[in-house]
Structures are given as structure tokens and as C-alpha cells.
Design a protein that fits this description.
Blueprint (H helix, E strand, L loop, with lengths): L1 H20 L22 H17 L28 H7 L7 E7 L2 E9 L6 E8 L1 H4 L9 E8 L2
Antiparallel strand pairs: 1-2, 2-3, 3-4
Length: about 160
């Protein structure tokens, strides 16, 4: 009976020691995704393609509709101003570029609030560069806040 008590105590102590040695950062901690993640490295290309298709559709289909009883502009000309998606200053500072973004989307990456920013590739006009950037500086701005780039990939324009 005494042997059983010592065995149980030794097993209990061993599990406490082993669990205290685990710091929670397993070998894949940096690449672990959660169920709430909006962005993932494996699906990023498709997400970029979809965002670019949406943003191009918005530019192509941005003609002004006139409702019943309204007069058209003189000469029927509607000026179009090209505006890219808004990129907060702390995010563009983190990326290190202030180019006009082709597309942006807010979401979650590896459990962190993030922003996907798609910019033209600086070295190849047939490609785009996708940045997933930590977006905590957008919600909690401070003078020294600069977003951290979590992932960068270059893809062919579709």
C-alpha cells in the first residue's frame, strides 16, 4: 500500500516538473493559426487575387448613376478621381512604403489583429507584394507606434 502511494506521488511530481518546463512555445508556435484567423499563409495568394478582383471591379464600375428627375452634368462628363484604399500611417511606416495601395483588408493573423496591404511590386510591374501587418497601432495610436510586418509575399498580378 505504501508503495502505491509513493508511485502516485512520484507520477504526480513528475508531471508537475514536466509541465513547468514547457514554456508554451512549441516548435510551431510562430506558424500556428487559430480558428479565428482571417488570413493564413497557405490561402494568402487566393485572398490577394480576390481583393485585387474586387478593387478592380470597384474602379471599373464606379460610374455615377442619375436618379429620376436629376440633371446630368454639363457635357455629360463626370470627373473620376482614383483613390486607393486607406492605409494608416503607422502601417505604411511599418511597411516602409507610402505607395498607393491596390487593396487592403482588416482581419486576424496568428491570433493578432492584422491588416493585409497589397502594393505594386517595386522591382516588377507584373507582380504585387502582399504585406500582413500587425494592426494594433491603428486601434491604439501613440507617437512611437509603428506596425510590425508579420508576413511578406510577392505574387504575379492576376
Amino acid at each position: 500500500m505504501l508503495g502505491t502511494v509513493f508511485t502516485v506521488a512520484a507520477l504526480g511530481l513528475g508531471s508537475v516538473v514536466l509541465s513547468s518546463m514547457d514554456d508554451g512555445t512549441g516548435p510551431d508556435e510562430g506558424t500556428r493559426t487559430t480558428a479565428s484567423d482571417t488570413f493564413s499563409e497557405t490561402k494568402l495568394k487566393k485572398q490577394v487575387d480576390n481583393l485585387l478582383a474586387q478593387s478592380q471591379g470597384n474602379v471599373k464600375g464606379s460610374s455615377t448613376e442619375h436618379t429620376f428627375g436629376s440633371q446630368p452634368d454639363p457635357g455629360g462628363v463626370n470627373p473620376r478621381v482614383l483613390k486607393g484604399p486607406a492605409v494608416p500611417k503607422c502601417v505604411s511606416d511599418g511597411i516602409g512604403r507610402n505607395d498607393l495601395a491596390l487593396a487592403t483588408e482588416n482581419g486576424v493573423f496568428r491570433g493578432k489583429e492584422a491588416m493585409l496591404v497589397v502594393l505594386p511590386d517595386v522591382s516588377d510591374a507584373t507582380r504585387v507584394t502582399a504585406y500582413i501587418v500587425e494592426a494594433t497601432c491603428v486601434e491604439n495610436p501613440s507617437a512611437a507606434a509603428t506596425a510590425k510586418v508579420l508576413l511578406t509575399h510577392s505574387y504575379p498580378r492576376s
